[in-house]
Amino acid sequence: MNTQDVYNIQQAFFASGKTLPYKFRRQQLKLLKSAVKKREKDILAALHADLHKHPVEAYSSEIGFLYVEIAYLLSNLKRWMKPEDVSSPFIMYPSKSRIHRVPLGLTLIIGPWNYPFQLIMAPLAGAIAGGNCAVVKPSELAPRTSAVIASLIRETFDPAYITALEGDGSVVIPELMQHRFNHVFFTGSAAIGRKVLELATPHLMPVTLELGGKSPVIVDDRVNIRVAARRIIWGKFWNAGQTCIAPDYVLVHNSVKDELVAAMKKAILQFFGEDPAASPDYARIINRKRFGVLNTYLQQGTVLHGGATDENELFISPTLLEEVDWNSPVMQEEIFGPVLPVLAFSTLEEAIRLVRQQPQPLSLYLFTKRSSTEKAVTEQLSFGGGCINNTLGHFTNPELPFGGVGYSGMGQYHGKYSFTTFTHPKSIMKTGTWIDVAMKYPPFRNKLKLVRWLMR
User: Fold this and answer.
1) pLDDT of 395-423, one tens digit each?
2) DSSP-derived secondary structure for 118-142
3) Which domains does the chain have, with CATH numbers?
4) pTM for the complete prediction?
5) Which residues are catalytic?
6) What is the pLDDT of residues 31-53, one digit of tens each?
């Protein structure tokens, strides 16, 4: 089926009104969950084949995460769908006002390769909850996972309702976006995000962009060093650093830098052993092109730990760097791999200034025991979201909106924020006819004084 046929049949399906009822949306969310449950082994095998993900890592970040999201949507959907009563201005008496959350229509969801299952399916769950039709485009760079997604959707849903289209994104996405979708949801790099935004502009298509950036870790001198080191290493080297919210670099107070580095080295050894290449718990780089980019970063500083590579195995060991230049590519580009620069600062003001010299990051992580430091960083720095004394954790909470700011993205999702992203707040005012106040009608004569009083 070509993109024109897909677009036409989905338009007809949405126009039929089948997606509108609560019962239908609930049933489809349950269908999605049961379809995933039936294919858990296939999904885990695909993720291992594409990225060498350990089943625990793959399940928790790709499958289990989706189950939590679906459960949250099912628990709250009926309440979210109810019209919201709001007050009406006295000058429009007798009126009642309501906000109805209505489906957008046809949605396009474009996924990345780093979490190739979850970052397609979680937005799809939001689109279903919102009462929409959807076309999903999984990443061709994770081909085994893309095939599993396409098979799952084909065997579970009517293609007039939800369709998966595989293939080269540089071909398929422009073909799809010749048509006007009611919303485009993209997760991936800023470079591709710009192209998606350009394709959306002629049709004035609204777009959610979930991008990335250089997410900093700030570690001050009053901190639990052992815990900070373990949580930084865990967050950084999860999926071999190929996570949009992974710590991108560490800014540590110079008085505790050596202690933190020693603790991070110890954590790497505890997590992945003396030979991370032999560890079943450590993922691989997605492809040779990406490997080549990451390999150049290793030359842009002094290796404190790691630095081992094997291009044939797409392996780069967990690596700590120091003595990096802020103007070098490793400090100007999102690393998106297992390389972690460690830099020192003397004062909190200096750390804040250094973070500000970069575009706004998707995430920020602060390790401190000082409430004043927490307040200063939270208030003075702009970033999408983050954690105090942890990494990655904010992404797991469906109560929290997830999304970037500035160069790190636009729009939010997760939980209720997925529902609001994939719906439109339609405003309705209903006015009674039992009385018809004449004040608003011409001739106006001497009504200005009364209008001023009413609208003061």
Assistant:
1) 999 999 999 999 999 999 999 999 999 99
2) HHHHHHHHHHHHTT-EEEEE--TTS
3) 3-211+406-428 (3.40.605.10), 216-396 (3.40.309.10)
4) 0.95
5) 210
6) 999 999 999 999 999 999 999 99
